[in-house]
Amino acid sequence: MRTYYINNGQENGGPFTLDELKTQQLTKATLVWHQAMDEWKHATDIQELKSFFTVVPPSIKQAITTPEIELYKTSKTILGLKKSHFFLALLFSAILLTVFILNVIQNNKRSELDLKNKQTEFSNEKIKLEQNERNEERIQEEIRKRIALENNNLRKRDSINSRISEIKALLIDNKNKLATSTKDLSDAEKFTFFRSESEKTEEISLLQNDLQNIETQIIQLENESDRLYLQLEMIR
């Protein structure tokens, strides 16, 4: 069942059924509203209430004075409020709504800025960590290269020292051979018995060749030794 609300210009009344409205002192200017309506209307503008005013005509006094008073009151009020109060409330509501919207926008911008700052901080921290990792990798690589170089130099030094020791032994042996060959050559040049001149010459030539070969080997070994000592100094 449809229910109605009325406004006498000062306060609202209701809800009333259609029958209950008949007991109310309705005038054509009385504001009436029900749920199917978008806004308040005068009673005379509502189809089902028009019969109220044809069946019960108003008195002369009411016909002359009451509608004018009601219309005057109606023209001065909106939704039960004075127009000045209504527009003031409307303006205040608009200001509150504007402030609320601005606060929401500002909060959203602040949230977006905070999110961007956090993302930037995260990206910077990530870049810093990656840079530290790369630096650590370079340091480790340098350490590995240095260790490899030191091991390689150690192997070279060991190899050079081993070769130098061999050369020293070979020099001693060759110098002993040189001394022996020199003595043999001297003896061969002095010894003349049981040999022909050609045999003597041939023997001396062989001894001279041996002596020259030994001297050449000694020179080569000494040169090699000098080079190895130089390499050893460069490695150190």
UniProtKB/TrEMBL annotation:
Residues 115-152, 197-231 form a coiled coil. Keywords: Coiled coil, Membrane, Transmembrane, Transmembrane helix. Pfam families: GYF_2. Residues 4-49 form the GYF domain. The keyword Cell wall biogenesis/degradation does not apply. InterPro entries: GYF_2. The keyword Chloroplast does not apply. The chain crosses the membrane at residues 86-105. This is GYF domain-containing protein. It comes from Flavobacterium frigoris.
